[in-house]
Amino acid sequence: MSGLKSNLSRFRGYFEQTARLMVGVPDYDTYLEHMRTRHPDQPAMTYPEFLDNRLEARYGAGKAGCC
Amino acid sequence: MARILNHVPWLFFAVLGAFALGTVALARGETINALWLVVAAVCTYLVSYRYYSLFIATRVMRLDPARPTPAMRHNDGLDYVPTNQYVLFGHHFAAIAGAGPLVGPVLAAQMGYLPGMLWILAGVVIAGAVQDFMILFVSMRRDGRSLGELIKAELGDIPGVIALFGTFMIMVIILAVLALVVVKALTNSPWGFFTVAATVPIALFMGVYMRFLRPGRIGEISVIGFFLLIAAILLGGQVAQSETLAPIFTLTGVQITWILIGYGFVASVLPVWLLLAPRDYLSTFLKVGTIVLLALCILLVAPPMKMPSVTRFVDGTGPVWSGSLFPFLFITIACGAVSGFHALISSGTTPKMVENEVHTRFIGYGGMLTESFVAIMALVAASCIEPGIYFAMNSPPAVLGTTAESAAQVINNWGFVITPEMITQTAQDVGEVSILSRAGGAPTLAVGMAQIFSDLFGGKAMMAFWYHFAILFEALFILTAVDAGTRAGRFMLQDLLGVFFKPLQRTASWAGNLIATGLCVAAWGYILYQGVIDPLGGINTFWPLFGISNQMLAGIALILATVVLFRMKRERYAWVTMVPATWLLICTLTAGVQKVFHSNPAIGFLAHAERFSTAAEEGRLLAPATSMEQMRQVIFNDYLDAALASLFVLVVLAVLIFGILSCLKALRSDRPTTREIPGDRVTAGAAE
Question: Any idea where the domains of chain B sit in the sequence?
Answer without folding.
Answer: 2-188+251-668
